[in-house]
Amino acid sequence: MWEKWFGKKNKNNDDAQAPKAITDFSFLGADMHSHFVPGIDDGAKTIEDSLLLLRGMVDMGFKTIITTPHTMIDFYPNTTETIQNGFELLKQVAAENNITLSLKAASEYYIDESFDALIDKQPLLTIYKNEVLVEFSMLYEPPNLKNVLFKLLTNGYKPIIAHPERYLSFHKDIDKYTELKDRGCLLQLNLLSITGYYGKNVGAVAEKLLANKMYDYCGSDAHHEKHIDHLKNIGNTKVYDLLRSYPFLNNRLCF
Ligand SMILES: [Fe+2]
Would the pTM count as exceeding 0.85? Predict the structure, then answer.
C-alpha cells in the first residue's frame, strides 16, 4: 500500500532532469493552518520570509490563507492582540507587494494547563464560525485533554484537532481517533504527513485516517521555505490524486 500511494510518478522514466511542475492546490481554495505572521512563533522570522511563503502559496493556486500562529504559553505566549498586530502588518505588506490572497488570522492553540483558563478569559480566534484549531503534545496525551475538549464544546466552540496523525500516543490505538470524532471534534490532515515527510509511521496513520474518511480539513502547516518546496512537489507523487479526490471542507473557508 505504501508503495502504491507514495512511490514517485514516472518511476521508470528517465526524465529525472525534466523540470517538475508546481503542485496545483486550487482544488482546495483555502489553506487553514500555517505560520506566516513574522517573528511571533517558529514560522516566518521576518516580513521578507512571510512574503516568500505567501508567494509560494500563490504559486500553488491557493486563494485564501487563514494563518495560525502558535499560542503556547511556554514558547510562544501570543495573545489575540500580538496575533492581530502582527497580522495587520502582514496584510499591509502583502497588499503593497501585490499579493492578491484573501488573508485572515486565527491561532493554533496548544492544549496545556494554561489553555483551560484562556477559554474563559477571551474569545478565541476561530478558523470558521465557532471552529478553533488546537494541538497538543506529540509525545503524550495531556491528562486534561478530554476536559478541555468538553469545555470548548460547552462554551460553544468546535475543536479542530491539528495533525492528529502526528500524535505518537494515539498510534497504537486507532479507536482514539473515532473517540475524538464522536466527541464532536473535527480532524485536520497536514498535507506533508501523507508524503512521509514526518516519517513512515505518521504517513501510514494519515493514510488510514484518509481511507476511513476521518478528516474534515487539510492544511499546509507551512513554517518555512523547505515546507513550501515539499508542498510544491506533492503533485509529482501518486498521493496527489488521493488528496484531490477527498471531500475536504477547505473550500467553504474561501472569502
Ligand atoms: Fe502548526
Answer: yes
Q: pLDDT confidence of 18, banded at 50, 70, 90?
A: low
Q: How many domains does the chain have?
A: 1
Instruction: Please tell me the distance between residue 14's alpha carbon and the centre of ligand 1 in angstroms.
Output: 37
User: Which residues span the domain enclosing 115?
Assistant: 24-253
* Average pLDDT estimate for 100-114: 96
**Chain Cα centroid distance, residue 214:** 15
User: Separation of 34 CA from ligand 1 center, angstroms?
Assistant: 6
CATH number of 170's domain: 3.20.20.140
Does 10 fall in a domain?
A: no
Separation of CA 67 and ligand 1 centre (Å)? 9
Q: Is 78 left (phi over 0), alpha (psi -120 to 50) or beta?
A: beta
How far away, in angstroms, is 10 Cα from ligand 1 center? 32
Grid cell at residue 64: 485564501
